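Tutorial, part two.
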Amino acid sequence: MTTQNQPARGLWPAILRAGLLAGTLDISSAFIKYLIEGKKNPEIILKYIASGVMGRPAMQGGWDIAALGLLLHYVIAFIFTILLFWLYPRLKLVRFHPLLIGVLYGIFTWLVMNLMVVPYSKVPKATGPFNWNQAIIGALILIVCIGIPVSFLARKYYLYKK
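Running the prediction step on this input gives:
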């Protein structure tokens, strides 16, 4: 039996909670940013994610393609969550402040996504010059929505694991 101050002992339940939280925060922030920019249909974001495996035709798809995009989004969030939970004890990250780890891991996540995943996927290639404002906003979103929460939850898991 667990108390309110002590998390469940299993690694996979901790990863499941962290991944769901990170994925939900990240996609919610993407929707909010999209709407703040004055765009009307955030379903486009999910189709764009699906286009990573389907290419440009995904952008013309329906809700089934959007659902695939949402599934792929959570798969990616879980991969980054699993990676940080795997790295945490191996790099002895528990001795560092989880906020610092979260910031660094958010930047790492942004770099991997923008320098490896997106360029080697089938997403329609962006035209025009590199946009520093969008890059900084994207990195901040990943820091706040993935890096920091997953870092704090990984720390909590490994501190109470004993």
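DSSP finds five helices and no strands in the chain. In part three we will examine how such features are distributed along the chain.
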